[in-house]
Each structure stands twice: as structure tokens, then as C-alpha cells.
Write a structure and sequence with these properties.
The structure is a homodimer. The first copy, chain A, has about 350 residues and is an alpha/beta fold. The first copy, chain A, is built from 14 helices and twelve strands. Chain A binds a DNA duplex (16 and 16 nucleotides) through helix 2 and helix 4.
DNA sequence: CTGAAAGCGCTTACAG
DNA sequence: CTGAAAGCGCTTACAG
């Protein structure tokens, strides 16, 4: 079936296509009678404007991109991304924006596609996630001038618009929870693969310092946010006999739990642990994971709203948003005392 | 910075914009010398055509949609979707297509957006996933004429193009594996929420029939693919004393494992289990899960290729593709015998 | 308040 | 083989 055009709607309503366009775009100064007549034809015919023609004429596509750099491909199966996408689509649906997803499988692909994202004019703006240090995508978008928002704290300084969670406070809260339960040999599994990992390590250190606990370097191990890396890191920590571990992500905590169990130790009796994220799997861990809840969906929806404001030239909202986190106490540390 | 246009490239190369367009689109009959001259200007300037203008003129956007109906929202955090998206983007990146993601949070939103997907002309085609019975999205797309491919077996009959896995054979394989290990009270946790669930139940029944095992109705429980539902279903099965369970998804199997453990039974000694999916969590289950591997990424990439062929009017490939599955033997049933 | 007209940046018959 | 011109379906100054 042939799609209707503005002209045809105009004919049917006895007005010009300009008037129909104005009715559709809620231009204020239109005679009520005319508006009604046009509206009726639109409803009857089910007419919807061709968004591509509209984009070309208005220089606005109402399409925004979600960019996930290639080094995040391996962690893309984490439940973090589906949650984030749920938050993002919640806002895009509400604002009538279309979301395009850019997921790269290699650095070469990323570079090639970055060029075309920036130069073909399809997008009104992009959300860049999976914050990593010295993000080349951020710097090229910045140079180009395309509106964007980063999810997470960008490595680059300056007034880059971003939406982040309070990783420092969260990690500090988690670590102090361990200390409050009488633990003194508090270890950590940290990550240096992004700024979130860095900030969480800072919070961990803050807590120790507040309680005058000196950090034994043997109580620090590294992971890359994968379950396997948590498993290995925990095995490295065990000889140093920690009685508690703050782990920078729930997925790594799942791996750590297994290492602890395999060593014949009990959680939390021998080793108490606290994770970070509070994604679905943390409830299904055994024992259930005490963790820091970060509002992932809210990060997604907030990022869209912020980007939309930037695209529309509205800057009343702060361009750098840090969302609060919350300690969720479960069996892996402290639920017997607090529940 | 102002973006260049075809006209400007033409000026720089001393040809008309029509010629530049032909060079870019690999029109064959161009004097090599001219082609080279134009090519050089394009390279030097880094020119890339405005995709929106191109879409309007050519009536092709090179954008395809991935539609995930609202009743799949709750299972969207399953690792199934990230894997599928990885497969899809693998092909879209390779074919230079842009992927738009449509995820709905309510039926109302779904209906509203479906209309605009179909009527605004943005997409060249859609991939519809999360097969559910009587998919209203499929029927409206079908009526409208927009090219589409379903992932999974659609409920509607007819020659609807789809990419599916061999659920029947997979379930049969899994169940026969249980039987081959001497189990006779073989239960199942099935699901009726989509055709995959139905087909897997058929495979389960086939296996029993092949071995002349009568199905005790108390050995059938229902789930909805969530971990919780697997947990509850397993609790319902336990009084009937199964010595084996075929579970229609790994996520439900994780829940079932917990129920079995909590009942003080051992896996596989008391109850052997086999799941379906082989997504990452199945390796991290305790014990590791014997399961049926479905090539999720391949489904995604195949769906894109099929859709691309349909959009381009190429029909040499079969429009209905069923990918093979594979039994992966681990500790939850049989690895001691086969490894 | 409304219409005629120009223009967004491409593609593609139509001539030559 | 190449160019001039029409056209894709909208938006939006500019007049009136």
C-alpha cells in the first residue's frame, strides 16, 4: 500500500501542506476550526509523517546512539548491559526517540564505524558507555562536536557531560560495613580497567584510613570484572588469610565465593564478603551477596534525558550527575546482625 | 565544522554531483581517470554522504530494527539477549547496516510504537524475537508488508521467514542422555510461554516414547524461564521422587539446582539434571550443568543475513532456517561416564 | 493565520 | 560516459 504524504493530507483537508505540517508540529497560531479539520483527516487516514524526509528538512533525526566500545565486548553478556538498556529505552520510548545500538567486535571496526557515526549525520547525539581510560571515542566525538553523554566517570577532565554513580561512597560504605562487623584483615579485589574500578578502590582505602587500618599489600588482588578473574584473584588472596573482602563487582564476587568454598572456608564466618552492583545474580549467590546497589536503570534513563536536553539546547539541568548508591545487606556479611 | 556535500566534492573534482554519486555507489561505467580523480578528493576531504538525504532519495535507509516485545521485558536481563545482540551486530557491522533497538515496557507502548515503526518509513526491515504465541507484532508487520525475519519458530503458520534452532531434537537428545544413564523416573520442567517451550516438551516426550517409558503426570511442572519459577517447579516435582529432570532452560535449571540442594539431595547422584541453552551461567552452576547448546550468536547473525537478502530481493537462501544444537556433557549428568 | 516557494542533500531516469 | 533536471517528503522563512 502506498504511503500518504503531507500534500495528500492537505488536499483531503482543503489546506496546504504547510498548514498540515504546522498542525502536526503543534505550531500555536492556527485557527481552531482548521486545526480540527486537519486533525480529523490525520486520524481517519492514520497518517504519520515520513521521518526521513522530516529529518532532512529539519536537520534533526530524533535518533540517538548507544555506543559500547570494543573492549567491553567480553563483559557485554553481564546483566549490567540489559539493565542499562532497559533504563535507556524507558526514556527513549517516552521521549519518542529512536535508539541505535553500536556494539563493536574489534578496534578496527570501532574506528571505522566511529567515522561514519560522526560524518554521516544520522544521529542527533550519542551515549557512550563502558568507561575506560583515555576513551578514544569520547575524544573524537568531543572534537567533532556531536552532542554526547558519558555513562560513568570519563577519564578526560573538563566539563564532559556524564551520569555516574557515587562509586567512592559506595565502596567506602561497603568496607566500613565489613569493619563494623569486627573484621580487621580486610582485602579487596579491585580493577584498573575503568574509572569505576579506580573510584571503588579509593573508597576502600578511605574506609581503612578512617579506622586507622594499615593496608597489607598482600590483601590487594586484581580482576577484570569477569567471574573467572574474581575466582583467580581470590585464590591469590587466600594465603594472606583475609577475614573479609570488598570485591569491586558482583560478578567477580561470584567467582570469589567459589574459590572460598573450594578452600573449605565458610562465608561469612571465615571470610565475609561484600560486592558491588546488586544485579539479579547477587540474590542467587550462595550465600546471598551483601552488596552496593547502583541504580543502573536510572543511569540509563537519566543519560537519555540529559542528552535530550543537550541536543535541544536546554542546559538547566546539571551536566554532570552523580546518583547515590545504597548498601544492601544480605547473608555474605551482616544480615544476621541487621535483620 | 560545516559538512561537505556532493556538490562541493563535485566542484573540487571538476565533475557534476551525479558523477560523484556514481563513483561512491560503484556505478560501473565511469572513465577510470575520472573515478580516480573523484576518489582522491573523497579521500582527502574525508567526505561521507549524508545518510538521511541518501535514504530519502533512494527509499532505503539501511537501518533495520530489532523488536523485543513487552512480554519479554522480564527475561531481557537473561544472558540470551546480549549473546543474540552480539550475533546481530556482528552481521550488521559487516554489512554496513545500522541497528535500532525497540524494547517495550508495556503493551500500550508496544502498540503505539509498532504503528510508528510501520508507518514512518524509517526501517528497511525488522527482526522480531522472543517468540510468543500469536505474536501480534508479527501479524501487523505481515499485514503491512515490511520485510521481517522471526527469531524462533513463529506460532503463525505459512511461509514466514524465520531462524530457529532444533528444539525438538535438542530436548530429545537431552532426555535420552538421562535415560542412557539409567534414569527411569524422568521429570521435566516445561514452559508454555513460547514455541521453544512447546517444541522442547515434544522432544522430551519423543525420548520417553522411544524407550517405552510412560509419563507420570506428576513428573511435569511448569515454569516461565525465570530462575524463581525453576526453583518453585522443582519443589513441586520433588514429592514425586524423580531421579532425573530435563529442564527447558539453564536459568530455570539454576533455580531447580537450589531446590534440590535445599532438599538435601545430591546432583547427579540422587537427581541428574540436563538444561537447555548453554549460556555462560551454566558453566558456573554447581555442579556444572549438562545442557543443550544452542548457537545463539549464530541465530542473530543468520537472521540479519536472511533479512538483508529479503530486503534486497534475493531469495536464493531458504527463508526458514533451523540451526543444529549440541549436547554439552558436564557434571550435572554424565560427565563421569563420558569424559 | 495561511500559502507559495525554496531548500535539506542525495539518486536516477533521461538526453546526448 | 557524463550532466542537467526532476524528485524523494518534509520544514520554514517570507509574504500577505
Amino acid at each position: 500500500m502506498k504511503r500518504l504524504t503531507l500534500d495528500e493530507i492537505g488536499h483531503l483537508a482543503g489546506v496546504s501542506r504547510a498548514t498540515v505540517s504546522r498542525v502536526i508540529n503543534n505550531y500555536p497560531h492556527i485557527t481552531p476550526e482548521v486545526r480540527e479539520r486537519v486533525q480529523k483527516v490525520i486520524t481517519q487516514t492514520g497518517y504519520q509523517p515520513n521521518v526521513i524526509a522530516r529529518s532532512l528538512a529539519s536537520n534533526r533525526s530524533t535518533i540517538i546512539g548507544l555506543v559500547i566500545p570494543s573492549d567491553a565486548l567480553t563483559i557485554f553478556t553481564d546483566p549490567y548491559f540489559p539493565s542499562l538498556i532497559q533504563g535507556i529505552t524507558q526514556s527513549t520510548n517516552q521521549l519518542n526517540l529512536t535508539l541505535s545500538l553500536f556494539l563493536f567486535h574489534s578496534m578496527e571496526e570501532e574506528i571505522r564505524t566511529a567515522r561514519s557515526i560522526l560524518n554521516t549525520g544520522l544521529l542527533d547525539g550519542v551515549i557512550i558507555t563502558a568507561d575506560r581510560r583515555e576513551d578514544s571515542f569520547v575524544s573524537s566525538v568531543l572534537k567533532h562536536g556531536l552532542p554526547f553523554v558519558v555513562i560513568g566517570r570519563p577519564e578526560l577532565v573538563g566539563d564532559i557531560p556524564f551520569v555516574n554513580v557515587d562509586n567512592v561512597s559506595g565502596a567506602q560504605l561497603a568496607t566500613e560495613h565489613l569493619i563494623a562487623h569486627g573484621r580487621r584483615r580486610v582485602a579487596t579485589i579491585r580493577s584498573v580497567s575503568n574509572t569505576a574500578g579506580e573510584d571503588r578502590f579509593i573508597g576502600f582505602q578511605n574506609a581503612l584510613r578512617n579506622h586507622s587500618i594499615k593496608l597489607d599489600p598482600r590483601l590487594v588482588a586484581y580482576g577484570d570484572f569477569s567471574l573467572e578473574s574474581g575466582y583467580v584473584a581470590m585464590q591469590q588472596l587466600l594465603p594472606a588469610k583475609p577475614d573479609a573482602v570488598f570485591i569491586a563487582s558482583d560478578t567477580m564476587a561470584l567467582g570469589a565465593q567459589r574459590a572460598i568454598r573450594e578452600a573449605g572456608l565458610r562465608i561469612p564466618d571465615d571470610v565475609a564478603i561484600v560486592g558491588f552492583d546488586d544485579l539479579p545474580p547477587s540474590v542467587h549467590a550462595e550465600p546471598q551477596l551483601t552488596t552496593v546497589r547502583q541504580p543502573v536503570r536510572q543511569m540509563g534513563s537519566t543519560a537519555v534525558e540529559l542528552l535530550n536536553n543537550i541536543v535541544n539546547g536546554i542546559h538547566d539541568s546539571p551536566a554532570q550527575i552523580i546518583l547515590p548508591v545504597e548498601l544492601i545487606v544480605r547473608a555474605s556479611c551482616g544480615s544476621e546482625h541487621t535483620n
